[in-house]
Design brief:
Oligomer: single chain
Structural class: alpha+beta
CATH topology of one domain: Trna Endonuclease, Chain: A, domain 1
Largest sheet: 5 strands, mixed
CATH architecture of one domain: 3-Layer(aba) Sandwich
Distance between the termini: 54 Å
Radius of gyration: 18 Å
CATH class of one domain: Alpha Beta
Helix content: 10-25%
Strand order of the largest sheet: 4-5-6-8-9
Mean pLDDT: 87
Number of helices: 3
Number of strands: 10
Shape: globular
Length: 188
């Protein structure tokens, strides 16, 4: 394997890395995704809860969060987007499954360090995510596309980030900064 040279020192910026075999984008999405999980865990700890980042070692759970007593737990799946650039956040096909009442999705808008944009968090219960992702994807599948052609199914599922929307999207804005949903689930 060859020497890798990064063109920029900003890990949140799309970078090219030279390798003896090829030139590929640096894993800036990985940096953002990892950062997002730690920012979410930090926010939960700031609110008096225990939060452990699983570092990819637990299926469908990026963060395991509990009350102080350790008697109640929630599982959190974190997905990341750039608030200054993104109109959607990709969640994938697994968002169609409701994993139970103790499962939450957190869509983390993690801005680039130099952007000046604020952090954004949408805290969505799994049941709400599953219902809305499933129905919006079905609307998309059953609506003719360009030139009346049928849409082909895929594993791509997205949530439109306010104020963006389209004819298939659902309104996620009521879940902005709804940390109270997790706090209530872990209350005594």
């Amino acid at each position: 394997m060859g020497i890798r040279q990064a063109i920029s020192l900003d890990p949140f910026k799309q970078q090219k890395v030279k390798d003896s075999q090829q030139t590929t984008p640096l894993r800036d999405k990985t940096f953002r995704g990892n950062a997002s999980q730690f920012f979410v865990a930090g926010e939960l700890c700031r609110r008096g809860l225990y939060a452990v980042v699983t570092l990819g070692n637990a299926a469908n759970t990026d963060i395991l969060c509990s009350n102080i007593e350790g008697t109640k737990f929630v599982h959190i799946q974190v997905k990341t987007y750039l608030p200054e650039k993104s109109s959607t956040c990709s969640v994938g096909k697994k968002a169609e499954k409701s994993y139970g009442e103790n499962f939450f999705w957190v869509l983390g808008g993690i801005p680039s360090p130099l952007s000046g944009c604020p952090f954004e968090y949408y805290i969505v219960p799994a049941e709400v995510m599953a219902e809305n992702i499933t129905s919006s994807h079905q609307r998309w599948l059953h609506t003719p596309g360009k030139d009346g052609k049928t849409h082909n199914d895929s594993t791509i599922r997205t949530v439109h980030i306010p104020p963006h929307s389209n004819q298939y999207s659902w309104d996620v804005s009521p879940y902005l900064n709804r940390w109270d949903l997790i706090e209530a689930k872990l209350a005594d």
